[in-house]
Structure formats: structure tokens, C-alpha cells
Amino acid sequence: MAMNRRDFLKVGAGVSGGLVVSLALPGCAGIQTGYQPEAGEWRPDAWLELTENDEVFFTLARVEMGQGTYTGLTTLIAEELEIKPERITPRFAPVAPEYRNPLYKLQLTGGSTSVATSWEPLRMAGAEARLMLVMAAARVWNVEAAECHASEGRVVHPNGIDSMAYGKLVELAAKEVVRGDIALKPRKEWKYIGKQQGRLDARAKSTGTAVYGIDVELPDMVYGVVARPPRHGGRVTGFNGDEVRAMTGVLEVFETERGVAVVADKYWRARKAQEALSVEWDFSEALSVSTEDVFESYRTAADEDSGESERSEGSFERAVEGAERVLEAEYAQPYLAHATLEPMNATAWYRGGRMEVWAPTQAPDLGRIAVARVTDLGPDDVTINTTFLGGGFGRRLTQDYIEEAAAVAYRVRRPVKVIWSREEDTRHDLYRPAMLHRMRASLSGGELTGWHHQIVGPQILDWYVRNAAPAQYPWAPKFMYGTLGKVGLMAEGIATPKDMSAIEGAIEYPYQVDNIDIRHTHTDPGVPVTWWRSVGYSHNGFAVETFMDELAHESGEDPYQFRRRLVSSEPRHLEVLDQAAHLANWTSPAPQGRARGIALFRSFGTYVAQVVEAGIENGAIRVYKVACAVDCGQVVNPRIVEDQIEGGILFGLTAALYGEITLESGQVQQSNFHDYQLMRQYERPEVLVGIVDSAEAPTGVGEPGVPPVIPALGNALFALTGKRQRSLPLRADA
Predict the structure, then answer these.
(1) Could you say which of 417, 595, 698, 711 would form a disulfide bridge with 720 (CB–CB 3.0 to 4.6 Å)?
(2) Coiled-coil region(s) at which residues (predicted)?
(3) How far apart are CA 364 and CA 402, in angstroms?
């Protein structure tokens, strides 16, 4: 069966030298070949490319910010392509309609949706390519394709001995047309999905060769910093530009939409010049509220408006009328910063009538809109190069840092990197909203008969729609951007998706209660907000699961058994609840000086139960152990699931113990890790993660570890001290 290259090429004469296979479009007939950005329609969100040199490239449409898409999504392709994941080279996707997230109709990474939205399309892409390669080899050998099979990046002849590498077949495979349905590999035949695999980006990240946004270096690059108003909404009225321009290395000092930009030949010179900058601000329209004002406005709004009904079953009022006991509680959560370890940054270069940007962004298509807003360019004149992200948590869905870099680059006409300091990153963040919750429940005969939850606070879409709406219609002229944003808000829940950011996790209340009343009172004090890891689930999880613990205590029932009884008809909730209790040895006494708390929550389609074992040591809260059970459907990589759940737990514990952004007269009081503290390594608890073996469709794991750990810790502290804490952060001396 030996064949030299000349004979082989005769078989495929006239065929191009590479095979490019797109993902199969659900509901569309035929195979899409080649890269077709002009199609103007949604397509599945990644591309597969094979070359004559036996290279395999996977264009990754979801960014890598530590959550494991680089490995997990590549594994889906590898499984069906019959090639080891490490043989595939992922590449970050450019902006194109093909790469939009189907849930959001935008090219963004968020909501723990990467695996869920890619599960079938990516496997189909690998299966398509494999079948085309097999068909091509069969044509060369003049045998039936059904008699051949693919293995380890080669197509194997029916004799089981001879084989051909994929790279030798790409020219022929490009001519093949697949007709009919494509069969995906059954679960029992999987080699990589569900198996413990190392991360494909581990070596690059551990050796420093992975390129994050802050690592980008370009020829003749300069550095920019921006002095922003200390209060949101402040405007520049004057600054000592001439004095600062005279400093060594300073190239430009000028006003921008967000403040005053300083550009220098070196980053440290730009920073020193910023220190010498004296800016006069107009605060007449700036934010002026303090933290106390925010919660006072929430309580006033809640008193005046019962809110919009989000879920109503039975009659809560009748349940109250017939109740033996009615419990009420109010819970409050502060604003929270994202505190990504890589601060906001972007590099931009304006040349030849185009802008090229290198940025750690979760939404590159919104990045193009951000550039267009601050220049006379259109989105098609902008190229966004996505880098690795040093943390995202939702912060990098908002593109203000790209706007700044683009505005500066457009002025200086040189490649410029704009970097935020840690202090700027903290004081000019867009925060997780502060929220207020009013809870009521009715009990009769030891049974929970009614549940009422009033959520008070803003909606994130109000702040996000500014760039999101134009990104959905990149062909629209810029004068329509403002109108598109307004229309998007007006059509919310009708022509556009409903904003669930305030109510998610509350309306999915899982417990069996006949009378349910869940409402949202929409009020916005004007503090900039955006998505934060687990979004609304984070604050609703605390309110729901803390109140459930209070109800269990009032009923005189064990908190685990109380919950278990109320989810007895929900097998997936029940499974994780039982498994977490088992991992934590719930029925055995906690060690002296410690206590346990439990919480159960479903977010982003993933079921999680957690038990926290905590105590108070040297006047501080100490978390010793967290036992967690998770059901995220079919697991792609168990190690990544464990890592993400543990990361979410530590992220949630940081918020529970330390997280708090406060304002005085509109000015954020925190600035760096000394006063916006993160959990340190020595504080890290033992974390046990049990993964439910499931064949259900996969769901996300990047965020579901966060919501239950916060109430579980609070419930443990109540079990320890007998004092219930209804506001965050939790305190040892409460």
C-alpha cells in the first residue's frame, strides 16, 4: 500500500493544499467549507483547520481566563477527530458572526456557557472532518469508507496494518461531501471526554510564554495612563498640561472622554507624570451617594413599591392568614469589585485608516464598538486580537479600557499600551450591585406553607446595553448606537432577552412550597455595575439559603434534613445534597470549637451543595473545610471541574469574609489589596469536591461554586455562635 507523494497528488490533482472545515450548522443542509465571514448569519462558534504538514488548528471562540476553555473545548474536537488533544493547537478567534455565543447573540464568554453551547457543535465538527478524511483515504485505496477507521491522527486501512496521516489527506478530503446525518461517538467509546487530562495551556503559563494583554509588546510602542475623576460622572475643567508635557519622556497630555491621558516613552515615566498632573473637576453631575444613602434608597423603594411579580404560585397572603408562624428577615449585600489579578489594560495601534487592538477581553465584538465610539472609524475598520486573560469574572465584558486605549492611540498615531494601576482598577471598577432582600415565610404544623422574596436593586443590562446593542447590529451607522441601546432596553423581555441579573437564583426556588411570591423592585442609585462571577445567583443564594436555615431552626429541624424533605421530588438536588452531607460527615459532631453549615443551590444549570466547617480563631473567622458535591451533567475534564469549583469556593469565601466596596459622597473608599482584601494562601481551607457521574447534557462550572459557599459559611457561624448575620461581609465579632 506504499504510495509516493507524486502518485498521491495525481489522485487529488487540482485540489487546494489545505482542508478547512467549519462546524455543522444545526438545521442547515450540507457542509460549509472555507472561512466565510461574509455569510451574515449565526454559525456554530469555532473552526477546524488541517494542513499538509499534519498540523491541526482549532480556532477557539471562547476566551481563556483560567476557566479551562482552551483545554475543554479542544477536547471535544479531539474526541471526534480521533486525535490526542495535545496534537491540536488552539487559536483565539477573530471577530466574526460565526463565533457568536448563541445564547447572547454576541461574541462573548460568560454565564458559564462555553461547554454547554459548544458540546454538540464542536463534536460535530470533529466528526465531520474525520468522516471526510476517511472518505478521502478510502477513495485512494479504492475500498469502502465504512471499512476504514480513524485512530490517533491517521486513517487505517481495512487490513488494520496500513494507514495514512491526516496531513497526507487534506487535499483530497477538501473535495469530499458528507451527505446525511453524522453519527457521534457513543459515550462508551470516548477516549478523552470524561477523563482526567492535563491543561493544554499549563506549560505556556508556567514558563511565562503565554501572552496576556499586559505582555503585548510592539515596535515603537509608547505607554498611556489616564487620570479619571474620583467620582463617577465628574468632568474635566482644567489641568496643568504644559507643566507635565515638559517632563522627561512625556509625549502627550490631553483631555479624553474619561479624564486626562498622559503618554510617555516608558510606563513609569507616564505614571510619574500622572502624579504631577493637577486636574480641576466639575462634580455638578457626578455621583454623590454614600453607602448609607444606597441602602436607605433601597428601603424607601421597597416600602413604596412591592415590585414586579417574577414568580407567583398559589396565594402567599392566604398562606400567611392561615399560618401558625410567620418569619421575616432582611438581608443586605455590598458592592463588590472584581479584583482580577491582571488589571485592566489594552494596546492599540492606529495606522492606515484602521485600528488594531490587543486586549484581554471577554467580548471582542463589543470591543470593536468601543473603538468606533471614540474614533471616526466603523466596526469593520477595527481588528481585535484577543489574548489570554488574567482573570475576568465579568469585568472584561465591559470595554471601557479598550475605549481608552483606542482614544489615546487615535491621537498619538503610534502603538500605545494603556495600563490601569491596581488603585485605578479598584476605584473605577464596575461593581457587583449592592442588593437588599426582604423575606417572609409562613409555617404551619412544622411545614413551610408560603414563601415571599422581594429583591431590591438595579439591573445590569441598563449599564451594559450601551455597547451590546450596537454589537448585535455592526452594520448600523454610529449615529444609531444610542437609539439601539434605548430600543434594547424598551424591548427587554419582548424582542430582546429579559434581564435576569437581579432575579436569577430566586425565581428558580427549588423547594416544594404551594404558595410562592417573588418580586423585584427596580431601583438604581447610579453606581456603575456589571456582571460579577455568578451574577445574581451570588446575592440571591445568600438570601435564599440563609433564610432557609432560619426556617429550619425555627422548625426545630436539622438544616440538612429540612432541605432534604423539601427537595424529595428533585432527584438531582437530592443527590448533591446527600453527597455533600456524606463528604462532610454531617451526622458526626464537628471538632471542638467548630460548627458546620449547609447550603444547596442551582446556578447556570449546575446543581451544587456545600457544607462549610468553620470556627473563630484569634478573633477572626477561620474556614477549615468545605465539602462540595456538584452535578454539572456530562463532565469533559474532571480536573478542570474540580479546579473551577474550588476556585469558585475561594472566590466566594473572599467575598463572604472581606468583600466590600463602600462610598462616601460618591467616592470609592477602597484602593488596593490592603483594604480590598483577597483570601491568602494560609487561609485556604481543605476542599473536597465530589462530582456526580451523569450523562445529562453538560452545564457550566466556572461560577456555580460561588453562591452556596457564602450562606453555608454564615449558617456555620450561626451554629457556632447562635447569632444570625444577615449582611455581608461576615464578621467574627457580630
Answers:
(1) 595
(2) none
(3) 10
CA 98 to chain centre: 20
Query: Could you report the per-residue pLDDT of 179-200, keeping only the tens digit for each?
Result: 888 899 999 999 999 998 899 9
> Cell for 603?
446556578
**Are the beta carbons of 302 and 679 closer than 8 angstroms?**
no
Domain with CATH 3.30.365.10 in the chain: 5-199, 213-284+344-419, 293-335+433-460+499-721
Which of 175, 230, 251 lies closest to 413, judged by CA? 251
The CATH code for residues 5-199 is: 3.30.365.10
Provide the residue type at 225 as one letter. V
Which CATH architecture does the domain made up of 213-284+344-419 adopt?
A: 2-Layer Sandwich (3.30)
Q: Which residues of 659-677 are buried (b: 16+ CB within 10 A; e: fewer)?
A: bbbbbeebbbebeeeeebb
Beta-strand (E) ranges in 61-104?
Answer: 88-92
Between strands 88-92 and 56-60, the pairing is parallel
pTM here?
0.92
pLDDT tens by residue, 563-584: 999 999 999 999 999 999 999 9
491 vs 104, 311, 476, 500, 718, CA distance in Å? 15, 20, 18, 14, 44
Measured distance CA(200)–CA(719) in Å, rounded: 43
Pairing relation of β-strands 620-631 and 686-691?
parallel
Q: Note the helical H segments in 428-522.
A: 461-472, 481-490
Partners of 614 in the β-ladder = 595, 623
Instruction: Round to the nearest angstrom and report the end-to-end CA distance of the chain.
Output: 79
- Taking alpha carbons only, the member of 438, 695, 425 closest to residue 543 is 438
Of residues 52, 6, 329, 10, the one with CA closest to residue 168: 52
Q: How confident is the model at residue 23 (pLDDT cuts 50, 70, 90)?
A: very low
Which CA distances in Å does 690 have to 115, 187, 454, 642, 649?
20, 21, 33, 8, 14
Contacts of residue 86, Cβ cutoff 8 Å, sequence gap at least 6? 200
Supply φ then ψ for residue 381, to 5 degrees. -90, 5
What number of CA atoms fall less than 13 Å from residue 584's CA on the CB side? 32
d(CA 575, CA 216): 47
Q: Which residues contact 619 (CB under 8 A, 6 or more apart)?
A: 732, 733
In this prediction, residues 13-37 reach a mean pLDDT of 36
Alpha helix locations (H) across 452-600? Answer: 461-472, 481-490, 535-555, 559-566, 571-583
Rounded to whole angstroms, how far apart are CA atoms 697 and 688?
24
Q: For residue 70, what is the enclosing H or E element?
A: helix 69-81
Letter for the amino acid at 91? R
User: Which grid coordinates are listed for 469?
Assistant: 446593542
